[in-house]
Amino acid sequence: MRVRRTLAVLCTIVPLVWAATGCSDSSGGRITATRGLTFEQSISNPVHGKCQAFAPLGVDRVSNHTGIDIVLHKGFRCTDPAGRPSSYLASTYSASAVISLGLWHSFSTVGWPPPVNPN
């Protein structure tokens, strides 16, 4: 009788654990941001649906090595000042800022993360 209960519990819990690991809210990979030749910042596994900040002075080049697209913002807290549009950066691409429009200070994720790391 004990073996049947244990087997029933395992048959119930194991699929739930597998489903939970596939429904992560982070996008596997890394965002790498630089400012000139002297500063580099890496953000591993950015969280989906959360505004993430770059260094306070901003960055002028961003490489997206994740499986999810991001939007780069000129302002803090994922806002954009008037006349300074945001930039869309698809997964596995890089972008450089137009210095006259200002540096990027934050980013947010777009869409849903893939169930597994694309790398």
Would you write up a description of this structure?
The chain is of the alpha+beta class and 119 residues long. It has a single domain, classed as Sandwich (Gamma-B Crystallin, domain 1), CATH 2.60.20. Helices cover 18% and strands 31% of the residues. The protein has one helix and eight strands, in the order αββββββββ. It has one helix at residues 2-22; strands at residues 29-35, 39-44, 52-53, 61-66, 69-73, 87-89, 94-96, 106-110. A four-stranded antiparallel β-sheet has the order 2-1-4-7, with no helix packed on it. It has a four-stranded antiparallel β-sheet with strand order 3-8-5-6, with no helix packed on it. A hairpin with a 3-residue loop joins β1 and β2 (39-44). The radius of gyration is 19 Å and the shape is elongated. Residues 17-25 have low confidence and may be disordered. This is Lipoprotein. Residues 1-19 form the signal peptide. Keywords: Signal.
Q: Note the gap between the termini.
A: 46 Å
E-strand count: 8
In CATH's first tier, which class applies?
Answer: Mainly Beta
Q: Helix content range of the residues, please?
A: 10-25%
Number of domains: 1
Signal peptide: 1-19
Protein name: Lipoprotein
Keywords: Signal
Please provide a brief summary of the model.
By secondary structure, the protein is α+β, with helices and mostly antiparallel strands.
